[in-house]
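Query structure, 162 tokens:
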């Protein structure tokens, strides 16, 4: 499937709205993205046009957005761009939504304190997957090989020659 992933950097314009739905939690908010350019006549940075995106977050991202994002926060949002054209009261409305994959504070404009969210409980009846051993790599030298784990080899019988 060909989808357009975009990265938008802007400020939160509305308080996130969090809802529990039958398909899982969702959160939405508006993101204001303003282009800036250097006005050479004034030798100063000037604000250009502001675009507004409705950002949609789902599942655990929605829960974390609701707990972490407030109006005015500088954010970086990566997601799928969805442009909609609607007819309302005889007028044509064009809107752009971002179905968020990742949302984070823009650390070029401030600091943030990250807290890992708790993992959901494993449902009963589902066997937990064993954690892979990431600490050790495969042996690279012959002396590092663990021969005690190899199956025992039959010992060769001594043969005498006469």
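Result returned for the query:
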């Amino acid at each position: 499937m060909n989808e357009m992933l975009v990265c938008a950097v802007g400020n939160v314009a509305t308080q996130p709205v969090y809802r529990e739905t039958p398909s899982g939690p969702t959160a939405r908010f508006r993101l204001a993205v303003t282009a800036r350019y250097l006005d050479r006549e004034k030798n100063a940075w000037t604000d250009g046009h502001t675009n507004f995106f409705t950002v949609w977050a789902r599942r655990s991202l929605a829960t974390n957005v609701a707990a972490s994002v407030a109006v005015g926060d500088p954010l970086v949002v990566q997601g799928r761009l969805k442009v909609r054209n609607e007819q309302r009261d005889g007028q044509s409305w064009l809107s752009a939504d971002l179905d968020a994959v990742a949302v984070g504070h823009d650390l070029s404009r401030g600091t943030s304190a990250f807290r890992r969210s708790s993992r959901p409980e494993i449902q009963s009846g589902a066997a937990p997957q064993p954690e892979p051993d990431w600490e050790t790599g495969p042996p690279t030298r012959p002396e590092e090989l663990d021969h005690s784990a190899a199956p025992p080899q039959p010992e060769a019988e001594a043969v005498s020659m006469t």
